[in-house]
Every structure is written in structure tokens, then in C-alpha cells.
Amino acid sequence: MQRDEFEVVEDEMPDGTRRLALSGELDMVSSPEVVARLEELKEQGVAVRLDLTRLSFMDSTGVRALYTAVKNAQDGSTALQIVPPEGEPWRVLEITGLHRILPFVNDDAS
């Protein structure tokens, strides 16, 4: 089975929110990169929109990365929004129950 290469495309939205669009597989190989970048942005006080619509796969490490990001954002120092994935990654969130606590938004505010 061929692995979908992981990529993060980062840009700034008109309101100053930093959008991180993830594509490919969010797993034990790619999750540390995402966690590190989210921590950097939190330290800088930058609001983040994490776009998961192009993920093709997510394992338990990816789930943990999302959960940690949400927990870290709960102190109120920065805002975190998540555009939900589809397909198998969405199913992983449903199975774990994480879909109930993630701060989901539609990606209509570009």
C-alpha cells in the first residue's frame, strides 16, 4: 500500500488567523510536525484554523495531536478552529468520540 505524502500548506486569513491545511496521512510520522507548529503559533498568540478536509488517513497519534491542540487552546490564550475531515479520518473521530469536543467550523470564511 502506498502512503499518501503528508503536506502542510500554511497561509494567513484576512482576520489574521493562520490556516494550516493538512493533506495526506496524519500519523506517527507527521503528527510531531503539526504539534510543534501548533505550539509555536500558540506561543506567538496566533489564532489557528486547522483544515483537515484533505486528510486521507489518521491514526491514534493524529487523534492525540488534535486532542492535545484542543486542550492547549482551552486556556483561552489563542483560538483554535477545525474544519472537519471526511471519509476514514472522520470515522476515526467518530469512533473515538473526539468529534463531540472538537471546535468544528465550516471553511466558508476564507
> Which strand order do you get reading across the main beta sheet?
1-2-3-4
What percentage of residues falls in helices of 4 or more residues? 25-40%
Structural class: alpha/beta
**Separation of termini?**
34 Å
Keywords, separated by commas or semicolons:
3 helices, 4 strands, 110 residues, alpha/beta, 34% helix, four-stranded mixed β-sheet, single chain
How would you portray this structure in words?
This protein starts with 6 loop residues before the first strand and ends in a 14-residue tail after the last helix. The chain is built from three helices and four strands. It is 34% helix and 27% strand. The chain is globular and about 35 Å long. With 110 residues, the protein is α/β, with parallel strands linked by helices.
Summarize the helices and strands and which ones pair or pack.
Layout: E1 7-12, E2 18-26, H1 31-43, E3 48-58, H2 60-73, E4 80-83, H3 87-96
Task: Briefly say what this structure is.
The chain is an alpha/beta fold and 110 residues long. The chain contains three helices and four strands. Strands 1-2-3-4 form a four-stranded mixed sheet.
